[in-house]
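Lab manual, section 2.4: Encoding a predicted structure.

Procedure: take the sequence of the chain (84 residues), apply the prediction step described in section 2.3, and record the output as structure tokens. A sample record is shown.
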Amino acid sequence: MENVDGYARTIMVRAFLSERRGGWARRVTLAGQLPEAPGQAPDADDALDVRAALAGLPARQRATLVLRFYCDLNVEQSARVPLG
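Recorded output:
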């Protein structure tokens, strides 16, 4: 696969659109208060460490981690995604 970023972006957009079509946004309402202060800023060093660790993994393991934790799929959903 030559354009991994484009592929990932396409998958994320399709998942978002599919979720919107399913009516999830109409069924869920958030009625909480916004916090007064912003949350803690992300640590750039941690992000670099995570990227380096992911880059060291084989492609299929990296894809599995992205599906499970970035796309928030459960084990069964992740197993059904074709990984090329």
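Check your result against the sample. The CA atoms of residues 68 and 76 lie 10 Å apart.
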